[in-house]
Amino acid sequence: MSFNPNELILEKIRAVEEYDFATNELVGRYTQIESPSLKTAATGTAVTDAMGAEITTFYNAQTGTFDFTNSLFSLDLAASQFGAKKEAANDMKRPVSETVTIDSNHKAVLKYVPVGTAGAEIASVKVINDDNTFGATYTLTTGTAADDTFTLDAASKTLTFPADVAGRVFVRYDAITGNTVKVTKTADSIPEVRSLLVHALFHDPCNTNLVYAGVISIPRAQIDPSAVELTLTSEGKHAASYKLFKSYCDENAKLFDIIVSDDSAA
User: Fold this and answer.
1) Global model pTM greater than 0.85
2) What is the CA radius of gyration of the chain?
3) Rounded CA gap, 161 and 149, in Å?
């Protein structure tokens, strides 16, 4: 018997994958999909008679959108929304803010080695008062720590203060802290056009033990950067919206394919 399903139960969208449509290289994969939605629209032109009665409507300029929310914050998805590349390196510096305690030798040891212009890795530090307010500011000197200055031995991560300074200090500096990734949003970056594969699981409504693999193949999609919102809380979600395009040189003007297979292992 040939496989020719009609009505199906959609269990879930398993994953959304983004590809460089020129090279087919995978650039992003999102697996915690909530509220996926595929929509199409068209512009209607009404044809009327001499009395203004509508005879028919011609529809053209068909478009589509694909929206979903990822349950987890995704760096790859953010990079796509920002029109950026995710950078990964083990020698990338990042900003560090640290509170350190001055010991009995008037020294404070940082967690990381500060990097920057030699002799100017840390411009200044602030003393933290007992009531957690900021107190005096101390600036870096290459001489002996005195008055409102401190010295820095970057290699040993050690700050030395005048003898009358005690308690804690707040330090901001740059450091290389290990394997690091970075996504940068610039004011003129534009998301690239991608290809999408949206993987789904279906069930036969007459026998729910029958599981079918499905995929929505979208050859041209550009993520919408006009209203990106990253909810910076632990329960926050990561939403995305794509605008679908036909290939201008494609005579079939295809926006997407919905493909269902009886191979449940696909």
Assistant:
1) no
2) 29
3) 7
